[in-house]
Design goal:
The complex is a heterodimer of chains A (836) and B (127).
Chain A: E1 2-3, H1 13-37, H2 41-45, H3 54-68, H4 70-74, E2 77-78, E3 87-88, H5 89-92, H6 96-110, H7 117-122, H8 124-143, H9 146-158, H10 160-163, H11 174-194, H12 197-213, H13 217-233, H14 239-256, H15 265-268, H16 273-294, H17 298-325, H18 333-339, H19 343-347, H20 349-352, H21 362-369, H22 372-385, E4 388-392, E5 398-402, H23 406-424, H24 429-452, E6 455-456, H25 486-496, H26 500-517, H27 522-533, H28 546-573, E7 582-585, E8 591-594, H29 596-607, E9 613-615, H30 621-628, H31 641-652, H32 655-664, E10 667-673, H33 688-698, H34 723-727, H35 729-735, E11 747-749, E12 754-756, H36 763-768, E13 784-789, E14 795-800, H37 810-818, H38 820-825, H39 827-835
Parallel strand pairs in A: 9-10
Antiparallel strand pairs in A: 1-6, 2-3, 4-5, 7-8, 10-14, 11-12, 13-14
Helix pairs in contact in A: 1-8, 1-9, 1-26, 3-6, 3-30, 8-9, 8-11, 8-24, 9-24, 9-26, 11-12, 11-14, 12-14, 13-16, 13-23, 14-16, 16-17, 22-24, 23-24, 24-28, 25-28, 26-27, 29-30, 31-32, 31-33
Chain B: H1 2-18, H2 20-33, H3 36-61, H4 67-91, H5 104-126
Helix pairs in contact in B: 1-2, 3-4, 4-5
Classes of the chains: A alpha+beta (836), B mainly alpha (127).
């Protein structure tokens, strides 16, 4: 046995162990620091604020928790959301996130560190990402080795697929959920491996925490049963599986029912039935195996087998009947749309309207995961083969086995399921990312294990013991430290340094082997250990020389470095922009901040009455409630589709129809987002078709989508816009006085890239050529008044007029106020108004 | 929650129809080979099962009105049953190979902890 490079011999095993654990601690600390630091771009570039839409509600709820205490928060009824209806917040949210930051807030205050609750909320996600890295380390350690664990922790610390949902300021449920997810899985694996009720209870407690934190808990609810089921089908049923699963399910289900939002769902809905079914099946199997241990007759065993099969069929059939009869609720639309991918678009437009619910394109896999996505399948395949387990027999022998273990099955099942879901929905990339990191880390560490291991096979030497699970012979042949090798060692160490994990793991393996073998030649044990994993060939071609090793290792190192660069680049450029402020670059490279949202929200906050209801599309509900502190009609918690459709109808109808709706709902202000001036594409005209669709779902007679298209089927806002389009409240509010900005020049909408008729033919033409849009100069309102328009015209706020004092219809009243010419042109409407 | 319990009971019922002697031999083997501690655990298991069946029958025949109370009571029976069954498996000397790292004392501590956690949730859910 020769070595490609020599290793120092005179190191005591305890020194190696200590160094390895020190390196591990340092590596984990650095990984945590990197994970936190790479999430702070938004805070450093802009300021420490809450981003996006949903986090504003979480922040608002957390403020209630921090100022009023937990019981007030638990029973909080919010009369300002969903204005006429109100919202029972305690029963309609997952309180885990708020409770977590409330605990942190109180703990910090108990330590006399008076941190603002906003800063706790902003920095919660980076803090938890460090914990995620740690729990991923733990999970991967169970899969393969601590070195693979460190790689996985490093990957998930900076991978953009996870950063995208956990930058500082992104105070969303996912911020803590992924940590809980990984730790629940770790506890589950641990429980399964040891057959320990303690770890089962820990898994159940973390599962309960997960249920309190995120609606994605259904993923765990179905992953663990699926894993158990696959194990049963593989004939891997064991008492350990029973202990782990039963203790998890019994405690976890009761724990999950404590969350008011979940309530009785774990026994009433189809999403949770897999867990219950597997629970029943495990009881049957354990009972059967108990009987089998007492009776040996094969005849009896067949009967048992048949009865188990029959009872399983009865159970499954029973569940089918229960579902069919309606005692168990069928899949909810959100989950069902994962299977039938066309379902949401057809029946629930509100689900399909969210951009995160679209299928994922290939480039986003690469953008979010870089080279991990290529290593991911390789890692899964390596897991099929299994990773070597080293066990020390009581006799002092070291046995190494390479075969698939129960926890590998888990990761494989997880990988398959998560890949499917991530392909269906962009948002579920988040659940895929951890398993990609784990599998890729297994792949990379396998590669490094092979190419960093110094042993070279002897020609025709140890070819015989290619079988697995051979006991490593101790002390057969020593590696002598040749004096000419220091340079080679130095090179190899230099290559090994990029990832601290590999070195420490190597040393740890060596240490374990050495301690077991009770001799100082630990390296030899390692050599033979590895040579059993990779049966040496009789000839000596291939990877064994230093040059080939260096080629591969340099390549891998370069990939790892590019990964870091890619992650940093994507994080800084794509995922670190608070959507509340828009940033653009001036020609000289300086940053130009567009802060229209807050300008408008603060105008609302300062210049309107406390109880003035603001109507906007549901996207902005949380932000209005959070920043402007005004009641809203609808918000991002889309629990009442009809109410949203009402707003959609008001926005997409002419003024005569919209005004009664506004009045009936006590609306004082209408807020819209308009990006036509500076090219902000996420504005309400681009969302308008969804408003129409959602309204059409409820009032198919009054609102029809085709009416908003040109006869050619185009969606236009220019002179060719359809009648329904140009008469809709949304169109008028968006383009009201827009032409004045251009001083008689061409009026361009910079989002749609269409030219609007600024000075068109006047009134007569309106009647003669109905396909012509009214010129913008003639856009007037009967029912609303412009109250505020932000600096870049992004947010426009209109005030709803009160009823006319003379009892006229508002249109004719405003026509009268504007002058005779207008009034005379519409005598019919006036007369009707007077009659009315 | 009804699945596991009723079906376990049904398994033992379905076998006598097949061969009465097999049940006798099973009972014989059970009484002969099982240590008395495990028999004690089994007695507790039977008690839990009967209690769960009674609650379930009450729920079916009379009312399930405070549904959370039913779920809490029934869940405590089922949960305690499976935790005790887990304990039985862990302390069974025949399973020593499976549970290398769980000593009987450790198994009992796990059982106690699991039961405490379970009953905390049960009492919280009773309402």
């Amino acid at each position: 046995m020769t070595a490609a490079y020599s290793l120092p011999q005179d190191i005591s095993p305890s020194f190696i162990t200590n160094t390895a654990s020190l390196l591990r601690i340092v590596a984990l600390a650095l990984i945590s620091a990197a994970a936190i630091a790479s999430r702070l771009f938004a805070v450093i570039n802009f300021e420490s604020i809450i981003h996006e839409f949903d986090p504003w509600f979480n922040y608002r709820a957390t403020r209630v928790l921090a100022s009023n205490g937990f019981y007030e928060f638990w029973n909080w009824f919010d009369p300002t959301a969903w204005y006429p209806l109100g919202r029972v917040v305690g029963g309609t949210i997952y309180p885990g996130l708020m409770a977590t930051s409330g605990i942190i807030y109180n703990a910090l205050h108990a330590l006399n560190l008076p941190v603002d609750i906003r800063n706790v909320c902003v920095l919660l996600a980076p803090g938890f990402s460090a914990l995620t890295a740690f729990s991923t380390y733990l999970l991967t350690k169970e899969m393969k080795s601590p070195s693979a664990g460190l790689l996985a922790a490093a990957f998930i610390g900076i991978v953009p697929g996870y950063i995208s949902r956990s930058v500082a300021g992104s105070y969303d449920n996912e911020a803590i959920a992924i940590f809980i997810l990984m730790f629940t899985f770790y506890a589950w694996i641990k429980a399964l491996k040891l057959g320990s009720g303690f770890w089962g209870a820990v898994a159940a407690l973390f599962y309960g925490y997960m249920v309190a934190a995120w609606g994605g808990y259904a993923f765990i609810t179905n992953m663990i049963p699926l894993h158990a089921f696959v194990l049963i089908l593989m004939g891997r049923y064991s008492s350990r599986l029973y202990v782990a699963y039963s203790s998890w399910y019994a405690i976890g289900t009761l724990a999950s029912m404590q969350v008011p939002f979940v309530g009785f769902q774990p026994v009433r809905t189809s999403e949770h039935m897999a867990a219950l079914g597997i629970f029943g099946l495990l009881q049957l199997l354990s009972f059967a195996s108990l009987i089998r241990s007492h009776v040996s007759s094969s005849h009896f065993q067949t009967i048992l087998f048949v009865s188990v099969l029959a009872l399983t069929a009865v159970g499954v059939g029973g569940m089918g009947v229960l579902t069919w009869k309606g005692w168990i609720a069928p899949w909810t639309g959100r989950f069902y749309s994962l299977w039938d991918t066309g379902y949401a678009k057809k029946y629930i437009p509100i689900i399909a309207s969210v951009s995160e619910h679209q299928p994922t394109a290939w480039p986003s896999f690469f953008m979010d995961l870089h080279f991990l996505i290529f290593l991911f399948p390789a890692g899964v395949i390596l897991l099929f083969r299994g990773t070597p387990t080293t066990t020390v027999l009581p006799s002092g022998q070291i046995t190494t086995e390479t075969k698939i273990r129960d926890e590998h099955v888990f990761v494989i099942v997880y990988a398959v399921m998560a890949s499917y879901f991530a392909g269906v929905m962009v948002r579920l990339m988040l659940t895929l990312t951890p398993v990609v990191c784990v599998c890729a880390a297994v792949g990379v560490s396998e590669l490094l294990d092979v190419y960093l291991d110094p042993s070279e096979p002897e020609v025709g030497g140890e070819g015989k013991d290619g079988e697995e699970s051979d006991a490593a012979s101790t002390g057969s042949g020593g590696v002598t430290a040749t004096s000419g090798a220091p340079s080679a060692t130095a090179t190899a160490t230099g290559v090994a340094s990029p990832s601290l994990g590999k070195k420490s793991a190597k040393k740890e393996k060596a240490a374990a082997a050495a301690a077991a073998a009770n001799s100082s030649t630990g390296i030899v044990a390692l050599d033979s250990l590895v040579s059993t994993l990779h049966p040496p060939t009789r000839t000596k071609p291939g990877i064994w020389g230093l040059d080939t090793r260096l080629t591969i290792l340099l390549n891998t190192t370069a990939l790892l470095l590019f990964f870091v660069l890619h992650c940093t680049y994507v994080t800084s450029s794509a995922y670190s922009s608070p959507s509340v402020v828009l940033a653009s670059q001036n020609p000289d490279g300086s940053q130009h901040i567009i802060d229209d949202f807050r300008e408008a929200y603060y105008w609302l906050r300062m210049n309107t009455g406390e109880g003035d209801v603001v109507m906007s599309w549901w996207d902005y509900g949380y932000q209005i409630a959070g920043m402007a502190d005004r009641p809203t009609l609808v918000d991002n918690n889309t629990w009442n589709n009809t109410h949203i459709a009402t707003v959609g109808k008001a926005m997409s109808s002419p003024e005569e129809i919209a005004y009664p709706i506004l009045r009936k709902h006590d609306v004082s202000y209408v807020l819209i987002i308009f990006g036509g001036l500076i090219g902000y594409s996420g504005d309400d005209i681009n969302k308008f078709l969804w408003m129409v669709r959602i309204a059409q779902g409820v009032w198919p007679d009054e609102i029809q989508e085709p009416n908003y298209f040109t006869p050619q089927g185009e969606y236009k806002v220019d002179a060719g816009a359809s009648k329904a389009m140009r008469e809709s409240l949304m169109y008028k509010m968006s383009y009201y006085r827009f032409h004045e900005l251009f001083g008689g020049g061409q009026v361009m909408d910079r989002v749609r890239g269409q030219q609007l008729p600024s000075v068109g033919p006047t009134l007569d033409v309106l009647g003669t050529f109905p396909s012509f849009s009214p010129p913008l100069t003639l856009l007037t309102f009967g029912c609303v008044d412009e109250a505020f328009t932000s600096e870049n015209w992004i947010v426009r706020i209109y005030e709803v007029k009160k009823e006319d004092l003379l009892g006229r219809d508002l249109k004719s009243a405003s026509g009268f106020a504007e002058g005779k010419k207008r009034k005379r042109s519409k005598p019919v409407s006036r007369r009707r108004a007077v009659v009315a | 929650m009804a699945g596991p319990k009723t079906s376990t009971a049904a398994t033992s019922k379905s076998s006598p129809a097949a061969s009465p002697s097999a049940v006798q031999s099973l009972w014989q083997a059970y009484t002969d080979t099982t240590p008395s501690r495990l028999k004690l655990i089994d007695a507790f298991l039977v008690f839990l099962m009967l209690s769960g069946v009674m609650q379930f029958v009450y729920c079916i025949l009379v009312t399930n009105f405070p549904f959370n109370a039913f779920l809490a009571g029934f869940g405590s029976c089922v949960g305690q049953f499976v935790l005790t069954a887990s304990l039985r498996m862990q302390v069974n000397p025949e399973n020593k190979v499976e549970f290398k790292e769980v000593s009987p004392e450790r198994a009992f501590a796990d059982f106690a902890l699991g039961s405490i956690v379970l009953h905390f949730f049960v009492f919280n859910f009773l309402g």
